[in-house]
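Task 17 of the worksheet. Students: predict the tertiary structure of the chain below and write it out as structure tokens. Keep your answer in the requested format; marks are given for formatting as well as content.
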Amino acid sequence: MVFTPDVALAPGLTIDREIVARWLSKKEIASRLDISEKHLIDIVKWEVSITPSLAVKLEYVFGISAKTWLQMDITFQETKARLDEIAILQTEKECYKNFCSKNIGILIKRGLLEKFTKAEDKIREVKSFMWVSLLSSIESLYVQPKYFRQSLKFDNNIYALSLWLRLWEKICDTQTVNGFSKSNVKKLIKEIKPLLSKDRPDVEKIQVMCNTHGIYFVFIEENFEKVPVKWVVRYYKDNPVLQLSNKWNKTDIFWFNFFHELGHIAQHLWKKQTLIDIESKDKTNEKIEHEADEFALSTLLSEKTYNIVREKPSRVAILRAAKLNNVHQSIVAGRLASDESVINFWFKEASEFRTNVVANG
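Model answer:
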């Protein structure tokens, strides 16, 4: 919380009082200070700041330390700026609403923002979190190739999305990663494979494994309002980031998206580039998305095994295929449910095998 006085008291007021107390004219005081009378009048009128050299002269003439004069001037200048800031904060109230109260609540719950009552303090808190002095600058900062492909037209709430993106940067800053090379991806897959048979992904263990092989891993459990993003891969500092959202909260979808992004890191990602999956009709990178899909599918389930269960999908076939590939049954069921060619396998039936990434209640 920032305290802002109602008025800004300038050092010129103290100078004026000292002049009156000594029964001297401004002209004579100016001579004693070795400055022009106009300069002195400008100081008294708050139009000129006190410099260090002038502060020393004031110390000789009025017996008040140079440090005190400089501190008075700094306090005056800051107070003026704070009063100007209040006017700016008033204009930013509508802009602040675009972050969505639900999203702000998520960051408060995570301990990244304080819970304030006054609107001005809430806005200041978000500015500090976002590293911006004006909320409006977010629009130019986050709609750029660093975060989006130039061809991608993002029509949703850029403020809510920027908050989400800033959160994963904060999470990355808490992780320590080793050096990265493309060859690390195969080693990482080998280590992670035994986790595929679990009911729910062990997010903490996945993060440790990713960090060991030079990849930041971020899984944001909470679903941000007005942020239709499923995943992001990009470089942060000198290492790639694999970030997943909790869209649909299904284990099989989590793993598919994880290996899809790992496929991007292995095959497509380079520095100063971002690949982000927003729910849109943009088909700019259809080829590399298909390649990442194939990478994920082949990693999760062998094509030979899948084709067998696909020809005659049943509960027994799903369980057999899952056991054969040492993966959770929801991975097999989820693929069948999303396969448009399997017309006789209803999604409702497949969903019975699927588990949530995050347990409900």
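Marker's comment: The two ends are 35 Å apart (CA to CA). The mean pLDDT is 85.
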